[in-house]
Amino acid sequence: MDATALDDKEYKELLEAVRFVYGYDFTEYAESTVKRRIVHFMNTHRIGTPSALGKMLLRDEPLFEEFVQHLSITVTEMFRDPSFYKKLREIVMPQLATYPVIKLWVAGCATGQEAYSMAILLKEAGLLERSIIYATDINQRSLQTAKKGIYPLDGMKNYTKNYLAAGGQGEFSRYYAAHHAAVLLDRSLHDNIVFSPHNLVTDRSFNEFQLVLCRNVIIYFNQRLQEKVLRLLYDSLCPFGYLGLGDKESLFFSDKRTNFEEIDRKEKIYRKIK
């Protein structure tokens, strides 16, 4: 079965059932992406129809958790898009240094690499001890991985390359200890991060932040949902707070574009001005 064979009526009924029973709303995610992932999930589990999938999800909570894991965005790495982090280091860190307490929100943190990257950035700027990083995601399994701070050893070569390209100050290896085929990130990076569930689609703002990162998340939403999430991010920023989006995302078509100053067009860094 491929995504084109997924009937629109059955597709919508499935998402409505999931929203009604579990409170997860995927109805305004980009349809082509969600359909493709649903079909892949059905093929993997040898489930023949969306109605059969729906019945199984509504009575089998572990299967549903796996389904959410499959639909959620979990592709990430440390210092992904190094030039973005280099700009944060050069432009945003000096501004954050002016605050007595620094609050950051990494929205859609997936398995946590972006949050730990920010912790390293803050540590090297001498700001981590007075910072709180709130890292949130819809996906509970991803959050469990993030809290542990344990990642495959074979990713470290790429992470090290990213770190150095992002202007890293020293040896990246000082931030982790290798154990067989895995690495454990240094405890000092954990201490100022709060990992917590948060649904960008249904939940509200929960604090005021000097910096919000929501990178490579809203690209998977339709235009209406993008606007809703951007309003949430706007409401979560303090006056003159900074917003970082992914390289394929933009405020250009947003109603909120006039509320932001473009700090770096290429890196999609903005500052709230009104």
How would the blueprint of this fold be written?
Blueprint: H1 8-22, H2 31-45, H3 50-59, H4 61-71, H5 82-96, E1 102-107, H6 113-124, E2 131-137, H7 140-148, E3 150-152, H8 156-165, E4 176-179, E5 182-185, H9 187-190, E6 193-197, E7 209-214, H10 223-235, E8 237-245, E9 260-264, E10 269-272
Parallel strand pairs: 1-2, 1-7, 2-6, 7-8
Antiparallel strand pairs: 3-5, 4-5, 8-10, 9-10
Helix pairs in contact: 1-3, 3-4
Walk me through what this model shows.
The chain is α/β, with parallel strands linked by helices and 274 residues long. It folds into two domains: 3-71, no CATH class; 82-272, 3-Layer(aba) Sandwich (Rossmann fold). Helix content is 42%, strand content 19%. The protein contains ten helices and ten strands. The strands form two sheets. A seven-stranded mixed sheet has the order 6-2-1-7-8-10-9. The protein has a three-stranded antiparallel sheet with strand order 3-5-4. A hairpin with a 4-residue loop joins strand 9 (260-264) and strand 10 (269-272). Helix 1 runs parallel beside helix 3 and helix 3 packs across helix 4 (61-71). The longest helix is centred in the first third of the chain and has 15 residues, at 8-22. The N and C termini lie far apart (49 Å). The model has no long low-confidence stretch (mean pLDDT 93).
Low-confidence stretches: none
The ordered string of helix (H) and strand (E) elements is HHHHHEHEHEHEEHEEHEEE
The total of helices stands at 10
Shape: globular
Q: By CATH's scheme, which homologous superfamily of the largest domain applies?
A: Vaccinia Virus protein VP39
How would you classify the helix and strand content by structural class?
alpha/beta
CATH class of the largest domain: Alpha Beta
Q: What oligomeric assembly is this protein in?
A: single chain
Question: Which strand order do you get reading across the main beta sheet?
Answer: 6-2-1-7-8-10-9
What is the CATH architecture descriptor of the largest domain? 3-Layer(aba) Sandwich
**What is the terminal separation in angstroms?**
49 Å
Protein name: Protein-glutamate O-methyltransferase CheR
Organism: Dawidia soli
InterPro entries: Bact_Chemotaxis_MeTrfase (IPR050903), CheR_C (IPR022642), CheR_MeTrfase (IPR000780), CheR_N (IPR022641), SAM-dependent_MTases_sf (IPR029063)
GO molecular function: S-adenosylmethionine-dependent methyltransferase activity
